[in-house]
Amino acid sequence: MRQPPTPEDFTSPVHHARVVARLGIWLGSAFLICFLTGLISHLHQHPIAWLPISPTPSWAYRVTQGLHVATGVACVPLLLAKMYSAYPQLFERPMVGSPLRMLERASIAVLVASSLLQVFTGVASIAQWYVFGFGFTAVHWSLAWVTIGALVVHVAVKLPVIRQALAPPVDDIDPALAHERRWFIRGAFGVAAGAVLLTVGQTLRPLEPLALLAKRHPSQAPQGVPINRTADAAGIPTIVAEEGWRLSLTGPSGSRMLSYADLLALPQVSVDLPITCVEGWSADARWGGVRVRELARLVGGTDESFVGVESAERSGAYRRTTLPTAYAQHPDTVLALTVNGQRLSRDHGFPARIIAPNRPGVLQTKWVKGLTVSA
Amino acid sequence: MTRREGVDPPDIDGVAVGRTRIGLGAAGVVLGLVGVYAFVTGVPGRQWLGVFTWLGGVVVAHDGVIAPTAVLVGLVVFAHLPARVRAPMRVAALAVASVAMIGVPLLMTR
User: Fold this and answer.
1) Closest Cα partner for A34 from A140, A136, A185, A134?
2) Mutating which of A120, A142, A281 best tests the B interface, going by the most B Cβ atoms within 10 A?
3) What is d(CA A105, CA A96) in angstroms, rounded to the nearest whole number?
4) Is A55 part of a structural domain of the chain?
5) Are the beta carbons of B73 and B93 closer than 8 angstroms?
6) Closest by CA position to A112, among listed B39, B56, B7
7) How is A37-67 classified by DSSP, letter by letter?
8) Same domain for A245 and A366?
């Protein structure tokens, strides 16, 4: 039987160390952007007391999460190109070798496996294709650290090779080969840019007509805002009548039940806020309703109060959310009854939903049935 | 980076290791351990087998199917093209593979 190939069997110029190193810089930078913007998204969903996130500017999450998803999409061609370029290294001899060599190969195995799975789960989940059968957020979060750690180890291991590859060439290489190498590096960058261009319209409105590879097209969505989770999917009863519906308010001075008419009788505000989904789309909208801090005052809330929000949905990780003090007290944080001048549709959270500045969509709780105000 | 005899320990290739690389390597291990901790504490035990299966599966899919296919296409098709055509064709192939990877989840959830 023929032996497996050796790195020398791969003669294409795109396997040259110069190509591998340059693609590595692009991919590594993309991973770093994804990691940092992912940290921000995680902090929104799992707040840390000593590292609070401010509700202003209202567009911040739109930018960081848009960047996270766009860069993640760019990682698809960059990762494929990088791994194709470095593929011959898989066949380097000795296959196992010294303990240090084994350690190096193990770190690369971890890097390859976690990188591929990060990019795959990311791309699948922006389409809401939860084919992998495990909880996306916890796995994507922990593997992000594993990936970035393995990447740093990889850079440490390869540093001399990288330095050599990035130094000006000493040998007079064949211009035809150099031409092919350059084409591959620039081409991979071009494909990455193209992939971003075909998706980023889901958050960058002027590019929406180009968003052929995007799941969501905000301008075509009902009431101008895309719907990730329908009322049916959330297990909301088919008929919720305004007459029978009550909002439960609980606070330091007791409890109150407010009817839809009670809410309408309170001072109404109108706020222009984007809604940004963790999956990368965002849409501007005009929301109308009652300030959350106004509601909190009705049950003894103070300037220091934070507010727990409970949804009528039957299950789901975001059934209960919390508006930290800075959010609960912000004048633009509203229990919305209308969107873009229309009463909220059932799928948009009728009768009432939360809308707050600079906040992931999963925390903009729909079908609100209760608010719990802290002292 | 020049090797300082007797100061820098040799690494696998006999090249100087240096403090930068040791520092980077240690930082990487720490970052990775944060991930392991997050995994152990955040991912329910019953999902672990699924995650490890997927981790192995994507490597097998890439190293065993996607990359060999690309190499084979290179050998059978691209190697016979003039370099002028070969370079853009390679990028076109990358574009097709990328669109497929981004597009399949969209098709599956239509």
Assistant:
1) A140
2) A142
3) 8
4) yes
5) yes
6) B56
7) HHHHHHHHHS--TTSPPPS-STTHHHHHHHH
8) yes
Residue A2 lies in a domain: no
pLDDT of residue A49: 87
Print the domain residue range for A181. Answer: 7-215
Residue A111, in any domain of the structure:
yes
Is A274 in a helix, a strand, or coil? strand
- If asked whether residues A45 and A12 sit together in one domain, one would say yes
Confidence label for B16 from pLDDT (cuts 50, 70 and 90): low
- A246 and A201 fall within a common domain: no
CB contact under 8 A, B28 and A128: no
Q: Which two tokens stand for residue A339?
A: 């969107």
In chain B, residues 29-48 whose CB comes closer than 8 Å to chain A: 29-36, 38-39, 42-44, 47
Contact A336, A353 (CB under 8 A): yes
The number of angstroms, rounded, from the C-alpha of B63 to the middle of its chain's C-alpha atoms is: 10
Q: What is the mean pLDDT of residues B9-19?
A: 56
Number of domains forming the structure of chain A: 2
Tally Cβ neighbours within 10 Å of residue A220.
Answer: 9
Q: Using one digit for the tens of pLDDT, what is the confidence trace for A240-298?
A: 677 789 999 999 999 999 999 999 999 999 999 999 999 999 999 999 999 999 999 99
Neighbours of A265 (CB within 10 A): 11
Residue A87 falls within a domain, yes or no? yes
Give the domain CATH number at A313. 3.90.420.10
B23-36 pLDDT, tens digit per residue, is 999 999 999 999 99
First to last CA, chain B: 54
For residue A96, give both structure tokens: 């196992």
Query: To which residue do tokens 């970035």 refer?
Result: A148
CA distance B7 to chain A (A): 17
Type of residue at A79: L
User: Mean pLDDT across chain A, nearest whole number?
Assistant: 94
pLDDT at A99: 86
DSSP summary character for residue A267 = P
What average pLDDT does the segment A48-52 reach?
A: 91
Q: How is residue A96 annotated by DSSP?
A: S
Here the tokens at position B67 are: 């990359």
| Total Cβ atoms within 10 A of residue A256 | 15
